[in-house]
Design goal:
The structure holds 2 protein chains of 2 kinds. Chain A starts with a strand and ends with a strand. Chain A is built from no helices and 11 strands. By secondary structure, chain A is an all-beta fold. In chain A, 0% of the residues lie in helices and 52% in strands. In chain A, strands 2, 4, 5, 6, 9, 10 and 11 form a 7-stranded mixed beta sheet that branches. By secondary structure, chain B is mainly β. Chain B is built from no helices and 11 strands. Chain B is globular, with a radius of gyration of 13 Å. The chains are: A mainly beta, B mainly beta. Chains A and B meet through strand 5, strand 9 and strand 10 of A and strand 4, strand 5, strand 9 and strand 10 of B.
Chain lengths: 117, 111
């Protein structure tokens, strides 16, 4: 099946620094990628929809200047958490839809655990 | 406000019996529903889906039922196997534009 790779899987950073998380579709082209955040025992919260070659669409309540999303190619989307604070500590996970595949099927990365000290 | 809800955080079932996982949604614009399975330290993997024009979709041991009037869907696993133990997420989409997930139900199938 299709593979989505997310890197890094774990990152620890100091408060005030920026962290970049990469999401790659390894064997398919993804015109659309989705970024989710998961709090403990809660659902995957959709943060933004990343479209190749255009600006990301952010969900209500998500700060676009804090969570910078870039979808520069059909296989890569990045999420940059700028000026990270401890409250940004969370599990971030990306997903992509294979535009050739079954409609609606999303493929997920392994997720990235961010800890801000 | 959560648009997709899974009210049971956990479920324990004996091997060989049926597992029923439930999911409710609030947005009547949702027209596509999916179930994902997640093991620890891995991303969710697609399990089965259903379009709003259907009320049932079956794939091997897995069957998803959709009740649009009640805005409710369920996943049935028959017979349940220990390898089915995982967290199950339901998701809903409006014309594939966005996908919203429930909080997950942790299924434990006891040998």
């Amino acid at each position: 099946g299709a593979v989505v790779s997310q890197h890094p899987s774990r990152v620890i950073c100091k408060s005030g620094t920026s962290v970049k998380i990469e999401c790659r579709s390894l064997d398919f082209q993804a015109t659309t990628m989705f970024w989710y955040r998961q709090f403990p025992k809660q659902s995957l919260m959709l943060m933004a929809t990343s479209n190749e070659g255009s600006k990301a669409t952010y969900e209500q309540g998500v700060e676009k200047d804090k969570f910078l999303i870039n979808h520069a190619s059909l296989t890569l989307s990045t999420l940059t958490v700028t000026s990270a604070h401890p409250e940004d500590s969370s599990f971030y996970i990306c997903s992509a839809r294979d535009r050739r595949g079954r409609s609606g099927e999303l493929f997920f990365g392994e997720g990235s655990r961010l800890t801000v000290l | 406000d959560q648009q997709v809800k899974q009210n049971s955080p956990s479920l324990s079932v004996q091997e060989g019996r049926i597992s029923i996982l439930n999911c409710d949604y609030t947005n009547s614009m949702f027209d596509y529903f999916l179930w994902y399975k997640k093991y620890p330290a891995e991303g969710p993997t697609f399990l089965i889906s259903i379009s709003s024009i259907k009320d049932k979709n079956e794939d091997g041991r897995f069957t998803v039922f959709l009740n649009k009037s009640a805005k409710h869907l369920s996943l049935h696993i028959v017979p349940s196997q220990p390898g089915d133990s995982a967290v199950y997420f339901c998701a809903a989409s409006d014309n594939f534009n966005k996908f919203y997930f429930g909080s997950g139900t942790k299924l434990n199938v006891k040998p």
